[in-house]
UniProtKB/TrEMBL annotation:
Gene Ontology annotations of biological process type: secondary metabolic process
One Pfam short name: APH_6_hur
Source organism of the structure: Devosia limi DSM 17137
GO MF terms, alphabetically ordered: phosphotransferase activity, alcohol group as acceptor
Protein name, entry field: Streptomycin 6-kinase
Source taxonomy: Bacteria, Pseudomonadati, Pseudomonadota, Alphaproteobacteria, Hyphomicrobiales
Length: 268
């Protein structure tokens, strides 16, 4: 056996991979992530980006072979649990620390990262008639906001690209990210997904005070422009809605957040 692993216990199956907890040398736990056939491109990009992070702000990649990643086991709770325990501001501060670590300058970034503009294809390609009649103005506004953001030059850096509360887990080394989308683009996009998360907390996410509070914390700790951050948050919420509509899922969460995200963007 390549890594002397024993006792493989299935812990998750995603659309693109199978995830097992394994024991190494009968002592330490680790994760084995095996990509499903034909599902590898995005996951391979993510694995290469995780490797590039070198364990700073993200779970450590110990090794990889073919379509298998050998990763650090994180034994704590997802950041979404901290929010459900009433520690939302603390969670936002933790998220800021993770972003700060992920965005540290490092040499030799992977060269196959997906451009952020391409990541937004579904937003620009969606027929407005796919949206509920009463929400089509929200779609149109978000489309305009996204185009405005892409038209204004920004730094272009490697992005995790899917940084929400369930993709950040506590460990003996602090809060660490998993499962990146592996994009390249505006640093301020990195926090966009957090504004409409965690899953199932639609009322909290739509609260204008929460939106303002998160923007304050990210602005103070990461130096991101409030205008760009809130613009990306609204654009991402609409992109997320387009993905869900494609999959036949409801978009009630995004529709609850969008008016208040756009209002915060207008005021920023």
């Amino acid at each position: 056996m390549r890594w002397s692993l024993t006792k493989a216990t299935p812990v998750a199956e995603t659309p693109t991979s199978w995830v097992f907890r394994v024991e190494q040398n009968g002592r330490n736990f680790a994760i084995l992530k095996i990509l499903k056939p034909g599902m590898g491109e995005g996951e391979r990009r993510g694995g290469a980006l995780m490797n590039w992070y070198g364990g700073e702000g993200a779970a450590t990649v110990f090794d990889s072979h073919g379509d298998t990643l050998f990763l650090e086991w994180l034994d704590g709770i997802p950041l979404s649990d901290a929010v459900r325990q009433g520690r939302d501001d603390e969670a936002t501060i933790a998220l800021s620390s993770v972003v700060s670590n992920l965005h540290r300058p490092r040499a030799d970034a992977p060269d196959d990262l997906l451009p952020l503009r391409q990541h937004f294809n579904a937003l620009f390609a969606t027929d407005v008639r796919a949206w509920p009649h009463t929400a089509r103005d929200l779609y149109a506004r978000c489309n305009g906001v996204a185009l405005t953001l892409f038209d204004k030059p920004s730094a272009q850096i490697p992005l995790h690209g899917d940084l929400h509360h369930d993709n950040i887990i506590s460990s003996g080394r602090g809060w660490l990210a998993i499962d990146p989308k592996a994009l390249v683009g505006d640093p301020a996009y990195e926090v966009a997904n957090a504004f409409i998360n965690p899953m199932g907390a639609d009322k909290l996410a739509a609260d204008p005070r929460r939106i303002a509070g998160m923007a304050d914390i990210f602005n103070q700790r990461l130096g991101f422009s409030r205008k760009r951050m809130l613009g990306w948050a609204a654009a991402h919420a609409a992109l997320s809605a387009c993905w869900d509509l494609e999959d036949g899922k409801p978009i009630t969460g995004q529709l609850a957040c969008l008016p208040n995200l756009l209002s915060a963007y207008d005021q920023a």
